[in-house]
Amino acid sequence: MRQSPGRGPRLDVSDTGAVYAWVQIGGVEVGFHPADDERNPRGGSPVVYWGVDDVDQVRERLLAAGCERHRGPLTIDPGRRIAQLRDPFGTVIGIEGP
């Protein structure tokens, strides 16, 4: 993947041409990527990721509370993992951390 240098919005472009763009302001990161019918069906809500100290521990707590596995956990970068769960109302929740 290529990442744009410098400040401002950043881009990752995969070999297939898929683009992930994001901007970070303060401690908040907002990212955008193409819709993926398999992982994030069209018409669903945006996925908000919550920063957590332990992805596995929080994931297990959410599963025990009634959420269902949706995607992951996946390693995005060294030390950065994500997982997505679907709450009882169908909303996809993202968690991110080590």
Automatic annotation (TrEMBL):
Superkingdom classification of source: Bacteria
Residue ranges occupied by any Glyoxalase/fosfomycin resistance/dioxygenase domain in the UniProt entry: 15-93
Signal peptide: none
Coiled-coil intervals, chain numbering: none
Gene3D superfamilies linked: 2,3-Dihydroxybiphenyl 1,2-Dioxygenase, domain 1
Pfam families: Glyoxalase (PF00903)
InterPro entries: Glyas_Bleomycin-R_OHBP_Dase, Glyas_Fos-R_dOase_dom
Listed name of the protein: Glyoxalase
